[in-house]
Amino acid sequence: MTSPRTSRFPYAKGPDGIRRLGYGADYNPEQWPREVWEEDVRLMREAGVNIVSLAIFSWARIQPTADTWDFGWLDEVMDLLHAGGIGVDLATATASPPPWLTTAHPEILPVTATGETVWPGARQHWRPTSPVFREHALRLVRELATRYADHPALVAWHVSNELGCHNVYDFSDDAADAFRAWLRRRYTTLEALNHAWGTAFWSQRYSDWGQILPPRLAASHPNPTQQLDFKRFSSDALKSHLLAERELLGELTPEVPVTTNFMVMSGIKAMDYADWADAVDFVANDHYVVPGPQDRDELSFSANLTSGIAGHRPWFLMEHSTSAVNWQPVNVAKRPGELARDSLLHVAHGADAVCFFQWRQSAAGAEKYHSAMVPHAGADSALFRAVVDLGGTLEALAPIAGTEREPARVAVLFDWESWWSAEHDSHPTSRLDYHCEALDWYSALLRLGIRADIVPAHRTDICAYDVVIAPVLHMVSQEVSKNLTRYAENGGHLITTYFSGIVDENDHIWLGGHPGALRELLGIRIEEFGPLLDGETADLVLEASDGTATGSLWTDRIDVTGPDVAVLARYRTGAYAGRPAVTRRSTGGGTASYVSTRLGVEGLAGLLPTLLAPAEVASELPEAARGLVELAVRRDAHHRYLFLVNRGGTPVDLPAMAGEVLVGPAADGGPVLAPHEVVVLRQQAPGSVGAEHGDCTG
Hints:
Rossmann fold
């Protein structure tokens, strides 16, 4: 498992010198008159706030013109916060360039694929590859770092803000130049690039580097490998900007840790955050709930994946919402108890700081309807009282600060490049949703009460897991194929799905029949895919139980070709009726299973016990609590900390769960979880968990 370069987490400390969980918000005092600032600090102390992110969108205030600087207000705010015992995660303020900069240098503005300029008026109106923007941004960073290097309130640096949220794909001439330079480093020669891009198709062969462009608006489907490489390049370009600011800060303030806020959440796919983890001193994330049937499962999934990116070390929840947001079609307020539950679910999955956007709800601007710790109604409000209560809860959880997530026995692999490539145009179906398929598997595991880790596919030691689930692992290199084969042969249990193992790292088809790179391991061969039309389904019969399930989106015409392959389910209806739908091959000491259709949460929950049986994986929860309660575990050398989260709206009795109650009501015979409640128990650590399945990676 890889992890950030260090674990330089900016822990708050209480009067006793013991570190505490962080608690706070983005703080934007420049939106308010001076007389509000002291009131803010007083209320922060009442709420238990010990850290705030400051100056995120303050460039125009700090540098009113190209040649003038105004630090007086920021000096005063920094001093006030320090006097109140509140640490500052100081932003470099480079997220949105000021009007004077875009007026003087319109060449820093991004350009869309259709050639339109993205004008000022919102935020993030800058090109990640603009040398002009980089020069001005680093000048600002230098001024800030020089001025505040020794300020006692400074506990961390916050590079930019949500890098790539609005400007990840820029198709300007700056981007074209940088893309060509990136391609030269990747391929060295035009011959290698032409091979990788398959330019013999549609007469696209390049004879000069200068002919290559980003995938701008084209007459038909752009070259798929060009699209893939542009996605890789765009993630790298933003990472390059992160590193430029990070390296300057490291030079000027080497003792101050540096981070930026990732956006590991539903709908955000353009940044390969697993690749970015080494660029920060601690991982930070922003997360917002999107209402829907799996909304809290998605929160758990994203927090879990953030932990995987962080190498199971503590990470920082930089932003989430106290209640409603402002950017969804309908912005629903959180119900009583959800503010605390959502926050503690992040802590359960490794967050050592819980922060919100923002401290005080704005009176003007595009986010004035976005909730905050202090709402429009003020401190005399149910919302602020819930904020104060959460501060007390986090204080009670001080013993878990610095603990790591206890690894599960099951891992779900998450791969950004498979996500990108599997959802390209001109594919068997445009309905495939990589993130949704991965979330379905996780939701099914939650329904069964089984803990699982969500981990980056190519930055994780899969040998540590008894079961590895790889949904839609579309892009599989020869090296990854060998690693997965070695894992199964050495006793691991691999489960993969439709549209996996289809292409190599250049998005070229593995020939000879599907699933290509995994065909021999799985012992099956597919000549032709069978994607389903909207509303079309295929029924399955589960061989072991005579149960049924219904598949959608996709089916495969499977031929069993290898030895020791068991058919776990067959199609009962559809074009492939009677043929295998789910298979499992025994190989060495392990197994390799294949699921050829989208079964959804209910279907997967019915199938998973059969798939997990060879590994003897079962729930750690009492049977009556499975599906109703989520269990997450953190630990140190001496203790396990069990987070028990009520997933629904009814009370749940947990008579078999013993331990010292840190959070939640104490009860003889085990805790009772009220609707949406979280109980945290402390137990003595019994020792290590997990398994090793030989050398899977070398």
